[in-house]
Amino acid sequence: MNSLTIFLGMIGPWQIAIVVALVLLMFGGKKIPELMKGLGTGIKEFKDATKSDDDDSENNKVEEKK
Q: How far is Cα 5 from Cα 10, in angstroms, rounded to an integer?
């Protein structure tokens, strides 16, 4: 293995702390809950859209068999 693979594969508590500190510095403490709410809403909408696409494709398959 090369050194880049080893470096990227080792994520420890210090790396997580650095990422959290950078996020706090960039966005501030008050903005983070709003960002997480928006992220959660986006994920929910994505799941709903993929679920409705799956339902539509299943309905089309059923209609084709009849």
A: 9
Rounded to an integer, what distance in angstroms lies between the CA atom of residue 54 and that of residue 3?
43
Question: How far is 62 from 11, CA to CA, in rounded Å?
Answer: 48
- Decide: pTM greater than 0.70: no
Which residue type occupies 20?
V
Residue 42 CA to residue 49 CA, distance in Å, equals 11
Span 43-52, pLDDT tens digits: 999 999 888 8
HSE-up of residue 45 (Cα within 13 Å, Cβ side): 6
